[in-house]
Amino acid sequence: MKIGFIGAGKAGFSLGRFFVEGGIHVTGYYSRHEESAREAAFFTRTRAYDTLGAILRDSDALFLTVPDGAISPVFQELESMDISQKQFCHCSGAMTAKEAFLDIDRKGAYGYSIHPLFPISSKKKSYQELQGAFFCIEGIGPHLPEWKERLQSLGAKVQMISGETKIQYHAACAIASNLVCALADESLELLAQCGFSQELALQALAPLMRSNLEHLLAEGPKNALTGPVERCDTETVRKHLECFPDNEGKEMYRAVSRKLTGLAEQKNPNRDYGAMKKLLEEMEA
């Protein structure tokens, strides 16, 4: 299997080096920015290509590691060439293979979505952390078992999903990663009102956040849950809601607390959470 990359950003750099380190044959890189292709090729000890046609000819599979909005346009350029029996892969978490590679089966080619469930933040360092990461894959064609085996041989964990559930998958990833940043920012704003600098606030929150995350990952969200909602401490929750200076903060706290109430009921089935539900409904009204 000879794999080429179209696009030489963080994902292209990282996956290419990850594959090379694992003994997979990477042909090289093509990019509209020639210097980026040359840099990626040097980093992976492969080749920089001048044309789409040349890298297509030399590769059995092509990873389109370009922005989501560019995946389909790049594929449309490629499908004007002979793509029969070629495999095309993208790394978008939100887009399905069917959406990206429209009617690819009519061309005798195959399309796959191979998404690393990992924040690739560095072009030249993130590849070191991909071993042990999860990859979620779906697509159009018979090669999914081969991709699963190939990725597992590199030390990755692999989960196959269906294209129909791809957006739920991506929403789950965003909630667990991106949305946590919003919650942390809200916490920092409240601590600023108490006289904390951001640096000091982050230092203060770090043990609390790390301990909570460790328990959550080890025991699941229900068993890790603590705090005023879990205790059904309505007076404290009421005071929390009243301390927000605007409705945006109140709505955020209320929405999350309603979800927590459901978890608390599962954890403590003999405890009555009616007062908590009523309080949160009153604040909504």
Question: Would you give an account of this structure?
Answer:
The protein has 14 helices and eight strands. It has 285 residues and is α/β, with parallel strands linked by helices. Helix 1 links the parallel strand 1 (2-6) and strand 2 (25-30). Helix 12 (234-243) runs parallel beside helix 14. The longest helix is centred in the last third of the chain and has 22 residues, at 198-219. It is elongated. The mean pLDDT is 95.
Could you give a short description of this structure?
With 285 residues, this protein is an alpha/beta fold. It contains 14 helices and eight strands.
Annotated CATH homologous superfamily of the largest domain = NAD(P)-binding Rossmann-like Domain
**Strands side by side in the biggest sheet:** 3-2-1-4-5-6-7-8
In CATH's first tier, which class of the largest domain applies? Alpha Beta
Topology as a string of helices (H) and strands (E): EHEHEHEHEHEEHEHHHHHHHH
